[in-house]
Specification:
Length: 313
């Protein structure tokens, strides 16, 4: 490291854990450690941390809920930022007629948010039921499912960019597509959602319907990180093909490497058992990509993000 921890974080209102075990903080629950795990207590501290890291050419990664992440067994270098302090987990509501603008912190848990909005009778976010992670992480990858994605309810996004500057992006200032946005890299500190007033019972019923459909189709009780691969585009129809269907057709359901295996319930989920390593999962992903390419000529792209010391953010 070019700067010591004491110099890098000097005078900043942050919590810091050196040599932090971040692998167990992910949904996979496996993988190595981070040189530094830093939790800013204020927006100003978050901006200054990333500014100093840029100045020192130190890698910065942002850890949300760990739902779409696999950490290499050897861990990662540099600073891992986590927006788990109170200032990044706030919720505020401003009603105008039948529409409510909800300002939600980037560190807010999606499961909790879906429940809270339903309880208030706010509609427009039910399709995110059962999708794990934090608001910030969901925005960055435009998380979603068959019912829709994160971008549908967004009005604006507040960010700390990796040069330490802060910026607000209106919904017309960036593009969002399947599991991607054109937002620059950085920390999503808060968002504004545009939601409709509705009967709380009806909103809760729709949430239950989305969640039940997800639970019926996916191995939600197992240790996984959600879908391993993005659904690829069919070049002829320009529609998405189910990655799980392609993996299943290649005869890969149940295939295992060490403590990792392709789910027999949904082939686009890689599940892990106690004792599994990150390398087990990575090896299985590599095998699945090769076998699907050989079987049908489709190149699968990972949806799960892999962090390692070999790959710089």
């Amino acid at each position: 490291m070019k700067a010591s921890r004491s110099n890098l974080l000097s005078g900043l209102d942050v919590e810091c854990i050196p040599d932090a075990p971040i692998g167990p903080m992910t949904w996979y629950g496996i993988g190595g450690r981070a040189d530094m795990l830093v939790s800013p207590r204020t927006m100003e501290a978050a901006a200054e941390v990333v500014r100093r890291c840029r100045q020192e050419r130190m890698p910065v990664r942002i850890l949300g809920g760990g739902a779409n992440l696999l950490v290499d067994d050897e861990g990662v270098d540099g600073v891992v930022l986590r927006l788990d302090q109170a200032c990044f987990r706030q919720e505020a509501f401003n009603r105008s007629g039948s529409v409510t603008a909800a300002r939600i912190g980037g560190g807010v848990d999606l499961f909790s948010l879906v429940t809270a909005l339903a309880r208030r009778g706010l509609s427009g976010f039910e399709h995110m039921a059962g999708i794990p992670g934090t608001v910030g992480g969901a925005v960055n990858m435009n998380a979603g499912g068959t019912g829709g994605d994160m971008g549908q309810a967004l009005e604006s996004v507040d960010m700390v960019l990796l040069d330490g500057s802060t910026r607000t992006f209106g919904v017309d200032d960036f593009d969002y597509d399947y599991r991607s946005t054109s937002l620059p890299r950085g920390l999503v500190t808060s968002v504004v959602l545009s939601l409709e007033e509705d009967d709380p019972i009806e909103v809760r019923d729709r949430v239950k319907t989305f969640f039940a459909a997800k639970k019926a189709a996916q191995p939600m009780a197992d240790h996984s990180a959600g879908c391993a691969f993005k659904n690829p585009l069919d070049p002829q129809t320009a529609s998405r093909i189910s990655a799980g269907k392609l993996i299943d057709e290649a005869g890969l359901k149940g295939l295992s490497v060490g403590g990792a295996s392709i789910s027999t319930r949904h082939a686009n989920f890689i599940v892990v058992q106690p004792g599994a390593s990150s390398r087990d999962v990575q090896s299985l992903m590599h095998s699945a990509r090769e076998r699907v390419a050989d079987h049908c000529g489709v190149e699968l792209q990972r949806e799960v993000v892999v962090w390692s010391r070999r790959d710089k953010p």
